[in-house]
Automatic annotation (TrEMBL):
Keywords: Hydrolase, Protease, Serine protease. Pfam families: Peptidase_S9, Peptidase_S9_N. It comes from the Bacteria. One of its GO terms (biological process) is proteolysis. Residues 43-448 form the Peptidase S9A N-terminal domain. This is Oligopeptidase B. It comes from Micromonospora olivasterospora.
């Protein structure tokens, strides 16, 4: 099931375009495979009927045996599928290598991020040509130094201190990911956690940055997120329950055995998950408690880490709020009688009534507030576009930071300093590479610190945004709703229906698919492909109502909106159905399966990555990761017959029919804890059984998780694999 807007949601982002490929290869053995199985004929999964009954409805699942991850028969089947996929795409090997090389050549492989100041150090990461992972570093701030140091060629800064080298940690492992990277307020300790399987179970460690020693007090099976006490003597962290729900916040004293750690909060309501963080002011530890529709926040003074947590506002069903500390007050971003959220404040000493600060404005979705000593910066969206609003503390008019492009994405970047007049801003569009700005909150000067370089492609030509154009179109949904579409293509791309096109969609969890730049995408655009993003209901592009109209018993709007966008692109001359490939991941993979059943004639191919295609089965099982927390997103089919019937009517696996399906490529990972690998495996098996004339491929990463392979080169290779398949389907 499905970026992570909340880290445990089943979403993927470019990473929206999931990357990586190290799937198993070879021939399958016996087990639950029947018929002739070679690398050029598709594996045939044995049909073993398993019945389940809910609300008087009996369902037969012939492929439930694939749920047994540790069964050699399951592994044999997935291995056979990988061998078949490799054989079926062998003719694309040269194209895959070409696409990989095009991406590699355009990326400055030895690179360095714009350093961020925190206390007496500049913090940054480096990448090195030939190495998969980032190197995390810092350098002391020099006397009188106000501008971030630079290294245009990505080489180490003079006086650099390496805090953590991902390449050394990953040595000997097929997968590597960091869960937390958190330097203590005094700069002495580094808390970091590692995952070597892709199942997002992290081992937490503490490193003494003065000596380089990693302390003995490590903690296994932790979740994302940590917070330091003010004196750096105590570290707070999170663990999960058996259903992978983060449910406990712990207090660990540095140097003490993990067995002495104390539970600060345990959340027993299975709808809620917990998180922990230190406020930017470093005055409070926040324990965030959320369900999909309800919030509660506990605070602990960072100077008194053993103190009892205090409730800012008790949870009220349907009321969401977040807390930011600012001087004598807590800022409260909330949706109480404010569909698109409002901003208020309450006393930090004795939280109580909420005093309005920014009233609710329908159609303007307030998404976050960041507090600095003399300014507030509010992140918001209006008419499908993100923006930043600056509010001075001493009074006076607020203002928005202006950007020239018609379609773009903007937000705050890393800003750890509380007392500052300058904030770091990130910016990108479909044609503008990821950019880092510093914005002066007083003078309103916007300084471009760095735009991620795009090196010349194989033809030696420099990247020029003027060679591409971006557009905003509006499709008309079945119920008359106008649905926005963002598009990018090379200048001069024909509008006579002949252009090939890829359309991407997500549409869940109020996650917005704001415009993003992709180096790998240039290989498609330069071959004449149009790239489109359908901003369908269930996402958050047009505010909370846009989300509400694409969830629960209105979920089908997500699917019909996407089909309407595909039809619009064909009718308006951007492409034609036989030149259109759809793509989506995670909850967007559910979308792909649903539209394959709903409108198979609208697409020439479908790419479904880590697809949530067996949604009803998963949401019926409260023992599975995330299921109970997801009932407020999809409904509870266990308790509600109407929800059961509704989900059964759209879940892709339940609705496979003898249709003329487009070609389908499903990509998944064996260790995924968000969307379990067996969902796409069962889906492909049923497609082959029910509609055998179709062309269906399954590719399983045998050593990765929800986000795919972890190394950047492996990610580029999987993106090349997928893009080669897309180009082949488009006839390019």
């Amino acid at each position: 099931m499905p970026v992570i807007v909340h880290v445990f949601e089943r979403s993927v982002g470019e990473s929206r375009e999931r990357g990586g490929a190290r799937g198993g290869r070879g021939r399958a053995g016996a087990g639950n495979l029947t018929g002739v199985t070679t690398e050029t004929t598709p594996p045939v999964a044995q049909r073993v009927p398993t019945e389940r009954t809910h609300h008087g409805d009996t369902v037969v699942d012939e492929y439930a045996w694939l749920h047994a991850k540790d069964d050699p028969k399951t592994i044999a089947y997935l291995t056979a599928e990988n061998a078949y996929t490799e054989a079926r795409t062998a003719h694309l090997e040269a194209l895959r290598e070409t696409l990989f090389e095009e991406t590699r050549r355009r990326v400055q492989e030895t690179d360095l991020t714009v350093p961020v100041r925190k206390g007496g150090y500049w913090y940054y990461t480096r990448t090195v040509e030939g190495q998969q992972y980032s190197v995390h570093c810092r350098r002391a701030v020099r006397d009188g130094e106000t501008e971030p140091p630079t290294s245009l060629d990505g080489t180490p800064l003079e006086g650099e201190e390496v805090l953590l080298d991902g390449n050394l940690l990953a040595d000997g492992h097929d997968f590597f990911a960091l869960g937390t990277f958190d330097v203590s307020p005094d700069g002495r300790w580094l808390a970091y956690s590692t995952d070597f399987a892709g199942d997002e179970r992290f081992t937490l460690r503490v490193k003494d940055l003065t000596t380089g020693e990693v302390l003995a007090d490590e903690v296994p099976d932790t979740f994302y997120g940590t917070a330091w006490s003010a004196d750096a003597s105590v570290l707070f962290y999170v663990t999960v329950d058996d259903a992978w729900r983060p449910n406990r916040v712990w207090r660990h004293r540095i140097g003490a055995p993990a067995g002495e750690d104390v539970v600060v909060h345990q959340e027993d309501d299975e709808r809620f998950w917990v998180g922990v963080e230190l406020t930017r002011s470093e005055k409070f530890i926040l324990v965030d408690i959320h369900s999909k529709v309800t919030s509660e926040v506990l605070v602990i003074p960072a100077g008194n880490p053993t103190g009892e947590p205090a409730v800012v506002a008790p949870r009220r069903q349907g009321v969401e709020y977040s807390v930011e500390h600012h001087g004598h007050r807590f800022l409260i971003l909330h949706n109480h009688e404010a569909e698109d959220f409002a901003l208020a404040y309450t006393s930090a000493d004795a939280p109580g009534d909420w005093v309005p600060l920014i009233p609710h404005t329908p159609g303007t979705r307030l998404e976050a507030v960041d507090a600095f000593a003399d300014h507030l910066v509010v992140s918001l969206r209006t008419n499908g576009l993100t923006s930043l609003r600056v509010l001075p503390i001493g009074g006076g008019e607020g203002h928005d930071i202006d950007f020239p492009e018609p379609i773009y994405s903007v937000g705050l970047h890393a800003n750890p300093e509380y007392r500052t007049r300058q904030v770091r801003v990130r910016y990108a569009s479909l044609v503008t590479p990821d950019s880092v700005y510093d914005y002066d909150l007083v003078t309103r000067e916007l300084v471009l610190r760095r735009r991620k370089p795009v090196l010349p492609g194989p033809d030696g030509r420099e990247y020029d945004p003027a060679d591409y154009e971006q557009h905003r179109e509006w499709a008309l949904a079945d119920d008359g709703t106008r649905v926005p579409i963002s598009l990018v293509c090379r200048v001069g791309t024909p509008r006579d229906g002949s252009a090939p096109c890829e359309i991407y969609g997500y549409g869940s969890y109020e996650s917005s698919m704001d415009p993003w730049f992709s180096v790998a995408r240039l290989s498609l655009l330069d071959r004449g492909v149009v790239f489109a993003v359908a901003h369908i209901r269930g996402g958050g592009e047009l505010g909370r109502r846009w989300y509400d109209q694409g969830k629960l018993l209105a979920k089908k709007n997500t699917f019909t909106d996407f089909v309407a966008c595909a039809r619009h692109l064909a009718k308006s001359g951007w492409t034609s159905p036989d030149r259109l490939v759809a793509r989506g991941a995670s909850a967007g993979g559910l979308l792909m399966g649903a539209v394959a059943n709903l409108a198979p004639d609208a697409f020439a191919g479908i790419v479904a990555q880590v697809p949530f295609v067996d949604a009803l089965t998963s949401i019926l099982d409260p023992s599975l990761p995330l299921t109970v927390t997801e009932w407020e997103e999809w409904g509870n089919p266990l308790a509600d017959p109407e929800v059961y019937a509704y989900m059964k009517s759209y879940t892709p696996y339940e609705n496979v029919a003898p249709l003329d399906y487009p070609a389908i490529l499903a990509v998944t990972s064996l260790n995924d804890t968000r969307v379990l690998y067996h969902e796409p495996a069962k889906w492909i098996a049923r497609l082959r059984a029910v509609a055998p004339q179709g062309d269906y491929l399954l590719k399983t990463e045998m050593g990765a998780g929800h986000g795919g392979p972890s190394g950047r080169y492996d990610s580029w290779r999987e993106e090349a694999f997928i893009n080669a398949w897309i180009l082949d389907r488009l006839g390019v």
